[in-house]
Amino acid sequence: MTDRSTESSGTQVPWNLADLWELTTDRYPDREALVVGSQRVTYREIEERSNALAHVLADAGVGPGDHVACYMQNCVEFVETMLAAFKIRAVPLNVNYRYVHAELSHLLQDGDAVAVVFHRRFTDAMAEVAGDLDDLRISLVVDDIDPRAEPSQGDPVAFGAIDYTEAVGAASTARDFGPRSGDDIYLMYTGGTTGMPKGVEWRMEDAFFACVGGGDPMRLLGPVSSVDELCDRILDDQVVVMACAPLIHAAAQWTSMSWWLCGGRMVLLPGSFDGAEVWRQIEAEGVNILIVIGDAMARPLLDAWDDEGGFEVPSLYTVSSGGAPLNPNNKARLQEILPNLIIADGYGSSETGAQGTQRLMPGDSASEGTKFVLDPEVTCVLDEDMVPIEPGSDTIGKVARTGRMPLGYYGDPKKTAETFVEANGKRWAITGDQAVVEADGTITVLGRGSVSINTGGEKVFPEEVEAALKTHPDVFDTVVVGVPDERWGETVAAIVAATEGAEPTLDVLKAHVRTSIAGYKVPRKLVIVDEVVRSPTGKADYPWAKKTASDRE
């Protein structure tokens, strides 16, 4: 595939994340780039340490196309590892740090990891899987920064790991790497909702435009057409953005990179999500834009606001949710406490990049639900014959993306062929999301077909029922699944984590949701749990939910 480079100041520069990062660094080297807990670093500091790590990896035999696993919580070293891999045309591999042995071993073997950079707290887990990795060339251990990290009992030296700080400190910081390309690979492992993780492979040029914003992180100006234009968009007044998701999540990676390429400062949490701590960070750092992952983060933020009596956050002007939309009640509450706030929902996936947005401006009503505005050139809703559905039809179709999209799933041609299909002269990415096209051309996403519930021949999308349940004040969090039923095939079951002090009953919740959803969608079973199990990225664990619902009478 031809690499479309563009010219800046007479130099050929590819659409490559390492090259574009270096352009920003050269323009504002002493601007603060990243804050993670007690770690504060400038663009220059990240650049020099990334160069040093790139030399360490290259000296260990890591080269173009090799996979470098990032087995860390949020930290500066995670970012340095990503950039170091990009610089030598290697491929960073995101690792879910909650995985147990079987899952971790599968991911590192399936992902063909030849290098692993890991937090010290994960030493015991690494010791168990290191022997499974036939081509492991180097592993580096990073000191923990999460104050709640439980110390590991193992010794990383026992399986050959070396100290990250010592290795980087002894290496050259020279930027003396070979040329790179827009054809270099960007890889994002996605856990999905129902199965083992899959690695989504992108050409880096396509990832820059489809995932990282193409030089337009707010999706307002449109993508850039040249590197000169990208440089012109580097803001003299720095925007401060806080992403609550871990860097193992596409939302955090894409947000961070999109704002770094515009000269922004990112603020990340060093450990698990804590609503009050997020507000304190917004106060302390003067955060302008807050990125959350759906109601699983928005609700604790609102509870923390109430518990603490509010916070002074005049700098904050946007709250944006990726991965899952915010329900209307939480949007309305955000508008109540921060009347001048812009609230945005983003729609997309690791397989499609960013596909659509909804913005709620100050004064807009939050009661209309979430309807995404799409770019009709690349995203539409297709019927069973792969023909775009006309606006205003009640037909439920498949959300599909064309244009810039992934090469496929790493090492999985069968799944690639199922998800990325040819039809009507175009290649389409179809992830399984079902939607209807409204009369105004916006779409309402109903949910993922693979987790839909078939009850008496009617299809129920869990997300719709979950959204209705979350509008009840007694429901803190919920996940909805289908459980076997002799009469209906499946029946709808709601697993609910109650608001503190509340004791919701099935009858109360049934009556509440019946005002907004059809009768066949109403839960027939309620299971109360202390906590709804989710991944670090906020995704519901549907296998856990099904087992929990089935095990409870």
TrEMBL record:
<dbReference type="InterPro" id="IPR045851">
    <property type="entry name" value="AMP-bd_C_sf"/>
</dbReference>
<dbReference type="GO" id="GO:0016878">
    <property type="term" value="F:acid-thiol ligase activity"/>
</dbReference>
<dbReference type="Pfam" id="PF00501">
    <property type="entry name" value="AMP-binding"/>
</dbReference>
<dbReference type="InterPro" id="IPR050237">
    <property type="entry name" value="ATP-dep_AMP-bd_enzyme"/>
</dbReference>
<feature type="domain" description="AMP-binding enzyme C-terminal">
    <location>
        <begin position="464"/>
        <end position="539"/>
    </location>
</feature>
<dbReference type="InterPro" id="IPR042099">
    <property type="entry name" value="ANL_N_sf"/>
</dbReference>
<feature type="domain" description="AMP-dependent synthetase/ligase">
    <location>
        <begin position="25"/>
        <end position="394"/>
    </location>
</feature>
<dbReference type="InterPro" id="IPR025110">
    <property type="entry name" value="AMP-bd_C"/>
</dbReference>
<dbReference type="InterPro" id="IPR000873">
    <property type="entry name" value="AMP-dep_synth/lig_dom"/>
</dbReference>
<dbReference type="InterPro" id="IPR020845">
    <property type="entry name" value="AMP-binding_CS"/>
</dbReference>
<dbReference type="Pfam" id="PF13193">
    <property type="entry name" value="AMP-binding_C"/>
</dbReference>
<protein>
    <submittedName>
        <fullName>Acyl-CoA synthetase</fullName>
    </submittedName>
</protein>
